[in-house]
Specification:
Beta-Lactamase, Helix Hairpins, Heat Shock Protein 90, five-stranded antiparallel β-sheet, about 45% helix
């Protein structure tokens, strides 16, 4: 080469005289640097390298931060030291290595022990390292999940407390309905006896009629409350049977007709002329529709109108109860079917706020759907029930 000639090379390309061995060495350095960067930039992960027996040969990244041991203290030691005494007695460290050998990886969440003796909840993934068919060691990645474990335990405790409270509530409601039902019995017996003996005339007959209706209404609300408790405890069972839904709706409307007449309200029943066969719990369907009609009567002013209609859409019976009543406050719509939610808690005779909650429970039990639509206060409301014509598995 002439003396004035210069040789230029691209620094991004290896010199032509490099051997494959030199190229591999360069790549190895690059891989080592990549691992170093990984360990530096994973401050919440412990990376531990083990030989075939579980002896620590690498203690990197957040290992010292998580467990409190320095690299000097841990190199040459056994990873079994990090397990609890109980787990070591059960042979779990060796079992973890055996699982990794057979399945390539072993993962679990368990308690580990720090240098100061405190316990931490750790997620670990142990990977068996192989060179060809030869097992050469293990790599274990761990992260401290103690805070997450504490949060989960707090949530579990709160759920347990909530379940205990619900069981206590249901037991209280069960006793309450029993005691009040027992108290209402004699009152109802007196009114029935007075009527049979012909002792009720004039104002007395009117007064006793009011008492009788209030007793019946109270007994009905108590039965609804008892059904809510049964549903919540899984004791409410459906008795499925075939019947004509259209004819049943007409009968239900007749049972509330007298209440509507007292308020000079009109109930229009619109059902198909042909039979509408359905397989459902007839008594519970009656309860659903009765509660909706009862609410419509309660919250519709004198002279108002109520519509009960039924149609079939695909494989569902669609029942609608619409009224010209006071409507529902928009803020109540999202929780209108929750227990003890009242449409108008200030209205006399507003009830317990149980009826609509039971309606939803019973519709859900039939694998159906219930929804409500209201355009605002004093603009009426419309409840729509969708029930499968045949039981859904």
């Amino acid at each position: 080469m002439p003396e004035d000639a210069t040789m230029t090379t691209n620094k991004d390309e290896p010199p032509e005289h490099w051997t494959p061995a030199a190229q591999i060495a360069a790549n190895a350095l690059t891989a080592e640097r990549a691992l170093e960067l990984l360990w530096q930039q994973a401050p919440d992960l412990a990376f531990v390298l083990l030989d075939r027996t579980g002896t620590i040969i690498g203690w990197r990244a957040a290992s010292e931060q998580i467990f409190g041991y320095s690299e000097t203290e841990m190199l040459g030691g056994s990873i079994d030291l990090l397990f609890t005494e109980g787990d070591r007695a059960l042979g779990l460290p060796q079992l973890e290595r055996n699982v990794a050998l057979s399945a390539q990886r072993s993962e679990d969440d368990r308690w580990h022990v720090r240098k100061d003796g405190t316990r931490i909840w750790v997620f670990g993934s142990l990977i068996a390292l192989r060179e060809g068919d030869r097992h050469v060691g293990f790599a274990k990645v761990m992260s401290d999940r103690t805070n997450l474990r504490a949060q989960l335990e707090t949530l579990e405790n709160r759920l347990d407390s909530a379940h205990d409270a619900l069981r206590g509530r249901d037991a209280f409601f069960g006793r309450l309905t029993h005691e009040i039902r027992n108290a209402l019995g004699p009152i109802r017996n007196v009114t029935d006896l007075a009527e049979r003996k012909g002792l009720l005339t004039g104002e007395l007959e009117v007064s006793f009629g009011i008492v009788r209706r209030q007793v019946v209404q109270m007994a009905r609300m108590l039965e609804d409350l008892a059904d809510v408790v049964r549903f919540g405890t899984g004791k409410l069972q459906l008795v499925m049977q075939g019947f004509d839904l259209g004819a049943d709706l007409v009968e239900i409307a007749e049972t509330v007709a007298q209440d509507a007449e007292r308020k000079n309200q009109t109930i229009a029943v619109l059902v198909p002329p042909a039979p509408l066969p359905i397989v459902a719990d007839k008594a519970r369907v009656h309860q659903i529709v009765f509660n909706l009609l009862h609410n419509a009567i309660k919250y519709t002013p004198p002279g108002g109108r109520i519509w009960l209609q039924c149609t079939v859409e695909a494989d569902q019976a669609v029942i609608k109860v619409e009224d010209t009543g006071v409507g529902i406050d928009p803020s109540l719509l999202p929780k209108i079917f929750e227990l003890f939610t009242q449409e108008d808690p200030h209205q006399s005779g507003g009830g317990f706020g149980v009826g609509l909650s039971l309606v939803k429970d019973l519709v859900d039990a039939h694998r159906g759907f219930v929804e409500v639509r209201c355009d605002g206060k004093h603009r009426g409301s419309e409840f729509t029930i969708r029930l499968p014509l045949r039981p859904v598995d």
